[in-house]
Amino acid sequence: MLWRVRTTLADRPGILADVASACGHADVNILALQVFATSPRVTDELVVSAPDGWTDVRVAELFTSAGGADVSATRVSDSSVSDAATRYLHGVHQVLEEGRDVAEVLEELLETEPPDVADYSGHDQLVLMRRNGSELRIHRAVPFTPVERARAQALLSLVPDAGSTDVAIISPSPRDAVPVIRQAKLVDIEAVAALHERCSIETLYDRYQVPLKMPMTTRMARRLVAPDSGTALLVQVGSNVVGHGVLELIDEAWTFQLLIEDAWQGQGLGTRLMRFAAGCSKHEGAARLTFVTAGSNDKLLRAVGNAGFVARVERHDGNVHITVPLREVRAIVAS
Question: pTM (2 decimals)?
Answer without folding.
Answer: 0.51
